[in-house]
Amino acid sequence: MLKHYSQEQLVLGFKKNDSKVLKAVYTSMYPKVNAYVLKNSGNHTIAKDIYQEAFIACWKNIKDEKFKKTGSSVEAYLYTIAKHKWTDHLRSATYKKTVLTNETSHLTAVKDEVDIEEDEEAKKQFILKQALAKLGEQCKTLLKLFYFERKSMNAISEVLKMTSASARNQKYRCMEKLKALSLELKNNE
Q: How far apart are alpha carbons 187 and 144 in whole angstroms?
């Protein structure tokens, strides 16, 4: 159906709300978007909703002259919008809640995954605390002033009685030492 139209005719059709053009684009592109959504954990109902939103966004963008800037075909533009809308849907809290309430077995897997992530985060924090404890007092003070108290390097240099450049160099060395200690502790677990 779309082969009968040039890109200019499609754009003009969108701008003029030409029902033949809109219907041709709508019916020819829906199967591709539907297949994409189905292939990526969706269903027909959600695919229809996503496609509607994408089609309306495409139509508005063409009317608002935002499409010219892309340099792609109307079909590719519509498909890209639909893919982005699907990705946004997958990232949304609503989708995650739906997945959790609809699929009980999936709930357990997600909970286990969250527990593992929390355990990993706790391990990282524990290792970081141990590494900080092994740093010298001047490094601890410098890093505390910079990262926790958000002091400027000039303010830190005054507290530590050194030049601003020396404080910067010292901060770099302290961070390198902290990274090395953390890596060492992690490897020794």
A: 25
Which amino acid belongs to residue 128? L
Q: What tokens were used for 160?
A: 């530590």
Distance CA 33, CA 17 (A): 22
Instruction: Give the burial class of 8: count Cβ atoms within 10 A of its Cβ; 0-12 exposed, 13-18 middle, 19 or more buried.
Output: exposed
CA gap 110, 141 in Å, rounded = 40
Would you place residue 155 in the very low, low, confident or very high pLDDT band (cuts 50, 70, 90)?
very high
Radius of gyration over alpha carbons of the chain, in Å? Answer: 28
pLDDT for the residue numbered 100: 45
- End-to-end CA, the chain: 64
Please report, rounded to a whole number, the percentage of residues in the chain having pLDDT higher than 90: 22
